[in-house]
Amino acid sequence: MTKGCLSLAVLISGLVLATAAQARDTQYLLSIDEAMNTAAARERLDPDIHFVFADSPHGDVVAEHGNFVTNKKTNAFNKSDEEACRWVMLSALLSLQERVKLEGGNAVINIESYYKKQPMASRSEYECHAGALMAGVALRGDVVTLR
């Protein structure tokens, strides 16, 4: 094999491996409580806004402001999958928090994971997908005003 052919073979092998690495899409079901109780979450989530997952009990709804979806991605480079997932979960919650403020509510209820538009409702876990370079969380919930 000539030097040029060998270089081309190495390049093609590298591209195939890189493509396979990027294609990784590992699903995780992780603790909502752990994600919401990180130092960053405690610092950035407004304590006056309530996040209610799945069918967890909540106060009386006095106004409904709509159903909203957030789909967030984060760079997973040099992070464990779980660390990247916690970070992107916070990003998704912050997006919902901004929507609550924009709509004039004080809560998001019926929050469920909504990755690739597939609902997964849980009181204790959220769905995150991690690949070689990115991690993603999608959430859907109803913005409301609670009594």
Verbal overview:
- This protein is an alpha+beta fold and 147 residues long.
- The chain has one domain (25-146): Hypothetical protein apc22750. Chain B (Translation Initiation Factor IF3).
- Helices cover 37% and strands 35% of the residues.
- It contains 4 helices and 6 strands, in the order H-E-H-H-E-E-H-E-E-E.
- It has helices at 3-22, 32-36, 39-44, 81-103; strands at residues 26-31, 50-53, 61-75, 107-113, 125-130, 134-146.
- Strands 1, 2, 3, 4, 5 and 6 form a 6-stranded mixed beta sheet that branches.
- The longest helix is centred in the middle third of the chain and has 23 residues, at 81-103.
- The model has no long low-confidence stretch (mean pLDDT 91).
- This is Excinuclease ATPase subunit.
Main traits of this protein?
six-stranded mixed β-sheet, elongated, Excinuclease ATPase subunit, alpha+beta, Translation Initiation Factor IF3, 147 residues, 35% strand
Topology (elements, then pairings):
Layout: H1 3-22, E1 26-31, H2 32-36, H3 39-44, E2 50-53, E3 61-75, H4 81-103, E4 107-113, E5 125-130, E6 134-146
Parallel strand pairs: 2-4
Antiparallel strand pairs: 1-5, 3-6, 4-6, 5-6
